[in-house]
Amino acid sequence: MRFASRTFVLLAVGLVAARAVADAPKAYAGAACSGWADAYFVNEVWAKVGAMTCLECHKAGGDAEDSEFVLRDPNLFRGDARDEAVRYNHGQFVKVSLAKENGKSLALLKATGAIKHGGKQALKPDSAGQRVLAEFVRRLENPNHAAATASTAAEKNLPPFFDGVVMMDDARLLRRVTLSLGGRLPTDAEAAAVAKDGGKALRGILDKLMTEDAFFDRLREAFNDVFLTTGVEGGEANILSYDHFGKSRLWYQKHDLTAAGDAKAQQQARYKLSADYRAALHGEPMKLVEHIVRNERPFTEIITADYVMMSPYTARGYGVFDEVKGRFKNPDDPFEYIPVRLKALVGRDKNQNQDSATGFYPHAGILSTFQYLARYPTTETNRNRLRSRMYYQHFLGVDVLDLAARVQDAAAVQAKFANPTMQASECVVCHKTLDPVSSLFQDYWRFAELGVYGKRKGGWFTDMFQAGFEGTDMPADQRWRALQWLGEQTVKDPRFAVAMVEHGYYVLTGRRVLLPPKDIDDPLYAARRRAYAEQRKQTEAIAHRFAENKFNFKGVLKDWIASDFYRADGLATAKLNPARQAELDDVGVVRMLAPEQVERKIKAVFGQPWGRLSGQTAMLYGGIDSQEVTERASDPSGAMGAIQRIMANDVALKNTAMDFSRQPGDRLLFPDVETGDVPGASPDADARIRKTIVRLHARVLGRNDAAESAEVKRTYDLFAAVIKDAEASKKPVGKEEIYSGRQKLLRPVPDPKYAVRAWRAVVTYMLRRPEFLYE
After folding, report:
1. Residue 543, CB half-sphere, CA atoms under 13 Å: how many?
2. Per-residue confidence at 23, pLDDT binned at 50, 70, 90?
3. CA–CA separation, 320 vs 588, rounded Å?
4. Partners of 310 in the beta sheet?
5. Could you say which of 25, 116, 119, 242 would form a disulfide bridge with 91 (CB–CB 3.0 to 4.6 Å)?
6. Whole-angstrom Cα distance, residue 155 to residue 149?
7. How is the chain split into domains, by residue range?
8. Counting Cβ atoms within 10 Å, is residue 380 exposed (0-12), middle (13-18) or buried (19+)?
9. What pLDDT shows up at residue 19?
10. Mean per-residue pLDDT for 7-28?
């Protein structure tokens, strides 16, 4: 999955301009403190050299934390403190750049390895990074040279980022939101409210929409794309350990089913009981997400909640049903969930008993659920590092594999160091971050591949960095609640709020936020970085409000919906220069709907789903199984194109005649026409046909086309051409819909003039349009 390394400064052009000049450390006054120097530092020196090459070692907790050149990661600060971190880093670079050895800049000598540098050669001579640093030194020494003036002018002449981008009007935005989050079309009352009050009305509509069950279905679906917890292989045997739940986890095998009927009926009932139990177990982590958002609890509980969600079936698996059954509205509903605190685990012998100062299991939101631990298992050699990596991705938005370049000669490193992960700088840069969190999972080791609670025989590994977080050691008395301690540290980290806002963007768009560009030799680097910086600026603004709003996740979704990034609908012109094209490459309608969303959209438009985009067909259409296939396809393959054609044909066939079989007042698609209305029959018939086409464009495609527009004329011509072809055919064409199209009609629908046939072609055409298939 795509996650950004948070080692880049997330600032747009000129962020620290005038104020940075006024507030810069006095020791670096003069050449270092001009506005263009700050802009150049942020967008060139820091982005291409400092954050990408220097920061991971030259920071607190880094391999070079004892050197005189120590930097601060701006992502670990908010507001003014973030700006201060940027100014501090600027001062550090100025100091080392102006320092001389043999008449040359110490920064250039160190970075290129010309003199001793603990991190070895950081920048190759004449590389893009070296040239950026050399230019920075040159500007410090000669602030008035022409390059500085030219670059400043170029930055000031950039167009507004969304210049030339077409934005959705309020009506189309309303439709997009209700389909995306509610799986339905806007109601007449909602459409009228937005037509009257615009965006002001939309916020109130969102408040109501985010209480509907369909919204929570979508929320769970999208967050499972992130956490993939439904992908735990197997069922209760892989989630609930035999050592701790051996007497209860297979409760369904002995459940009394005599009321189901004879032996065969009882067997079928038991199969269903088992399947529902496993589905309920797999659903617990995402039900936690739903519970937090539904009740507008702080979203920090996703990693700090001191409870787990249980249904009547899973409570039986945990062995606590008798204690909690009175809290369920229906104790026989496998999918009604309530929050429950588990007691500390008791094993088959005392060595498997869980340490607990409170007598309860130390819940830490999703992080401590058995499903999450089983979904990301460990081994004797992995030592929980997969879990640590996924923790950083899921809760801080950091891919630790991006923290440093891959080791080029692992054999040489292994031969040189007794313990490379704690001694070799190229290894330490990742492991000093990764391993302390890995060590926090150390008590979830018994049957390590399953993640069941239990301490490792012989104690935890001593040849790796010990339990802690970002340079802070875990206090020894917190060992029994290590994951709770980690959750408490996590929610204090500014990266947590940002990561959750990024998840919100994914919920709404199905796309990951932009990654900072890495190829500094790319001629379009500046354009790609500007796109990233603009989106990042919006992300951080929403994250700031998110934190101020007590981490109410609904506010994140509302803020994204109100942003230009969500309202963007495309470009006003296709004639853009390559740089501008690169800036706007991720803006607009660029993602194909997932199979689940297609089914919901079909149901919203036609009143019933297609019903075939599930199982293997859904996988062929770009879906995921949360196990082996974990990333949704965003662009169609040949197979997906074939499924689109089959879907369009089948849905049109099943719904066109069906709609005509209803009374006009009950029709969803064709309330204004009858089967005798064909082109040329009468002026009124032509008007009714065009009115129906306008209606279909609005209902199926979300377009607001005038009756005399070119789009309506194109559809009208298709309608007329189908009728003409049928009339001119040398082979007899049936006067009724084909057999499968006549199934379950409410009344016969004769088609003497081939109008039903033509309307079916029109609906098929619309279902294959990008406006229907893409978001």
Report:
1. 28
2. very low
3. 50
4. 338
5. 25
6. 10
7. 17-156, 376-484, 595-773
8. exposed
9. 29
10. 29
> Which residues fall within 8 angstroms of residue 479, CB to CB, at 6 or more apart?
355, 443, 467
Closest to 283 in 3D by CA, of 246, 237, 334 = 334
Is the whole model's pTM more than 0.70, yes or no?
A: yes
DSSP 44-78: IIIIIIIIIIITTTSBTTSTTTTSS--B--GGG--
Q: Mind listing the pLDDT tens digit for each residue in 424-470?
A: 877 888 899 999 999 999 999 866 556 578 888 889 999 999 999 99
- Specify whether the CB–CB gap between 343 and 407 falls below 8 A: no
CB contact at 8 A, 385 and 396: no
> What secondary structure does DSSP assign to 246-281, as a single string?
TTTTTGGGG---GGG-SHHHHHHHHHHHHHHHHHHH
Whether pLDDT at 22 is above 60: no
Reported confidence tier of residue 148, pLDDT bands at 50, 70, 90: low
The residues, ordered by sequence, that sit 6+ positions from 6 with a Cβ below 8 Å of its Cβ are 73, 75, 396, 397, 398, 495, 498
Parallel/antiparallel/unpaired status of strands 165-167 and 568-571? antiparallel
Q: How far apart are CA 655 and CA 216, in angstroms?
A: 28
**Residue given tokens 């320092």 in the structure block:** 99
CA distance 184 to 650: 21
Is it the case that residue 221 has pLDDT exceeding 60? yes
Question: What is the spatial distance between Cα 333 and Cα 329, in angstroms, rounded to a whole number?
Answer: 9
* Amino acid (1-letter code) at residue 588: G
Q: Which of 401, 503, 391 is nearest to 439 (CA)?
A: 391
C-alpha pair distances (Å), 476 with each of 434, 446, 479, 665? 19, 21, 6, 72
Q: How confident is the model at residue 539 (pLDDT cuts 50, 70, 90)?
A: very high
pLDDT at 249: 94
* Mean pLDDT computed over every residue of the chain: 88
Exposed/middle/buried for residue 665 (C-beta within 10 Å: 0-12, 13-18, 19+) = exposed
236 against 356, higher pLDDT: 356
Residue 244, pLDDT > 50, answer yes
Strands 100-101 and 468-469: unpaired
Contact 386, 435 (CB under 8 A): no
Confidence at 6, pLDDT banded by 50, 70, 90:
very low
DSSP-H helix ranges across 510-552? 525-548
Beta bridge partners of 592: 774
CA 315/CA 307 separation, integer angstroms? 13
CA distance 44 to 619: 43
Q: Are 87 and 32 in contact (CB under 8 A)?
A: no
- Residue 717 per-residue DSSP state: H
- Give the 3-state DSSP-derived string for 363-423, with helices as H, strands as E and coil as C: CECECCCHHHHHHCCCCCCCCCHHHHHHHHHHHHCCCHHHCCCCCCCHHHHHHHCCCHHHH
What residues are paired with 563 via a beta bridge?
A: none
Buried-state track 446-478, b at ≥16 Cβ within 10 A, e below 16: bebebbbbbbeeeebbeebbebbbbeeebeeeb
525/506 Cα distance (integer angstroms): 24
